[in-house]
Amino acid sequence: MERYGTPEGTLQILILLRCKAKRLRRSVFQKIQAMALPSSIIVINTSYQEKAKEFLDHLLILGHSSHGAKTKTRYTKEFLSYIEQSGKQELNSITARDIQNYYDHIVERPNKKNGEKLSLKTCHHQMRSVELFFIMLQTKSEILINPIATLTFPYPAETGQIRNVLITRRNKRIIQLLQRRFRKGDFKPCIWLWLTGK
Known about the structure:
Blueprint: H1 7-34, H2 46-62, H3 66-85, H4 96-108, H5 120-139, H6 169-184, H7 189-196
């Protein structure tokens, strides 16, 4: 068997790292799928239910990922549930004030998982989903005026923090070895980009 210090060994390391990364991605994806999503979003109005299904299909046709489309649809269902509880049964009767009230509600409401307030990024994503929903309705001529078009929702400023990446001692040694080889020009830059994510 070749040693890791040789060019053939470097290739073996890359293959091992790639296989481990695939397994890790697969296991993380399975854990995400197994996580329970908030299921307390109940929309009783049948026309709202149909529009939510239509919205999911619309997003998938536009090319959104399945997970992203389902998340946006879930956010939209939460909005429709809120609107329904406030007494509005028709999409045409929803006003910009109703949407602003919903935004104020989600900024203040607790997270369903841990009880803390929702982050501003999550609130922004929820409102973007509602905006996409109204854009779909306007595109299909189901509403004449888009009530969300006049509203803006702040996106939180970047904090400037750099994400910490956990690196084991062994992986750190491998990366250092590959950095040396890269500086010497022993292997291709695309492999370096794949390894470091830069």
